[in-house]
Write a structure and sequence with these properties.
4-stranded antiparallel sheet, Ribosomal Protein L22, Chain A, 205 residues, single chain, alpha+beta, 27% helix, 2 domains
């Protein structure tokens, strides 16, 4: 399947989502890969991860980039050679990227009941607004928001529960705010979210 959804959140920021329905052979078609990417794919044991990696290269192509335009720094953060900010995510049948003139992070997660069991590890004051009828979806938004913020500021000292608070929201809002608060570092970001089938897409700008 080609692009599943394009979100132009502003003239500065674009989100593109791919639904992975192709075979591995089909995903190899129409894109060029660097030797480093070929090596990385060959070392992936999971076909799901291989498909996610390849589908991201198709997303790059859709906004005018090649695999060679993308590089990673030692902290694992992806960058584009032209200086624009990029963040990447994939989960099972979906992959997505965000490309922006500003710092941005993105995450997509399947809505799964097991998130309730691990909520105490990443949720603090956010429990005050979680609704029982929408607990899985709201917790997944909170996780995705914190993951997106972590990708923006990938400091090994960041703790999801303590350093990345998320403002109160309802699922119908489609947006909220989140902070990176650690020591003397304090930044606020706009958080956007929506449901894609049984998945939650979240991005921070």
């Amino acid at each position: 399947m080609p692009i599943y959804k394009t979100i132009k959140s502003s003239k500065h920021t674009t989100v593109i989502v791919w639904k992975i329905e192709e075979s591995l052979d089909e995903l190899y078609q129409g894109i060029s890969l660097t030797p480093n990417s070929v090596n990385r794919i060959s070392n992936m044991r999971s076909e799901i991860h291989q498909k996610g990696y390849l589908s991201v290269r198709h997303l790059l192509k859709s906004v005018g980039y090649n695999d060679d335009d993308l590089f990673y720094t030692d902290d694992g953060k992806p960058h584009l050679k032209d200086g624009k900010h990029i963040s990447i995510t994939h989960s099972f049948i979906f992959s997505a990227i965000i490309v922006s003139d500003y710092e941005a992070g993105i995450d997509i997660e399947m809505n799964r009941e097991k998130i309730i069991k691990i909520a105490n590890k990443f949720v603090a004051n956010e429990f005050n607004f979680i609704e029982e009828d929408h607990m899985i979806e709201q917790l997944t938004v909170v996780w995705g928001a914190k993951e997106s913020l972590y990708k923006i500021h990938p400091d090994g000292g960041l703790l999801f529960k303590h350093h990345l608070p998320i403002e109160s929201f309802k699922l119908s809002d489609g947006k909220t705010r989140g902070w990176i608060k650690k020591d003397n570092f304090f930044e606020v970001y706009s958080i956007y979210f929506e449901q894609l089938e049984n998945f939650t897409l979240v991005y921070a700008v």
